[in-house]
Amino acid sequence: MDYTIPEGSRVLINIWVIGRDANIWSEPEKFIPERFLVKTVDVKGGDFEVIPFGAGRRICPGMPLAVRMVPLVLGSLLNQFKWRLPDEMERNGDDMSEKFGVTLVKAVPLCAIPVHV
């Protein structure tokens, strides 16, 4: 693509921008998990639309554990508890502003209260 990258350079890939590319995703700024039902995307580094675990030699060694255990733990938590937001967050809504650092995190962490079913 007509880029000249000097030998020995370190190239940092901005995955946040890739995940919000309007050429790949319709309405990339919206949370629409259903979009993955119609699109076959490999999260193991084969497709570059989503790279949650990295790719190539630098892929996360904990990926197999995460791919198996996160759905199990999440399903158990959703099955055993009813979840609610704190009263203040119910009234004012969730603050979705971001705080930039080495990673991108929410400026105000999400707080959810489990209520045993």
UniProtKB/TrEMBL annotation:
SUPFAM superfamilies: Cytochrome P450 (SSF48264)
Annotated GO MF terms: heme binding; iron ion binding; monooxygenase activity; oxidoreductase activity, acting on paired donors, with incorporation or reduction of molecular oxygen
Cofactors named for this entry: heme
Name of one Pfam family that matches: p450
Record-linked InterPro entries: Cyt_P450, Cyt_P450_CS, Cyt_P450_E_grp-I, Cyt_P450_sf
Keyword Heme annotated: yes
Sites where the protein binds heme: 60
Matching PROSITE patterns: CYTOCHROME_P450
Keyword annotations: Heme, Iron, Metal-binding, Monooxygenase, Oxidoreductase
UniProt family annotation: Belongs to the cytochrome P450 family.
Record's protein name: Uncharacterized protein
Gene that this polypeptide is encoded by: gb07731
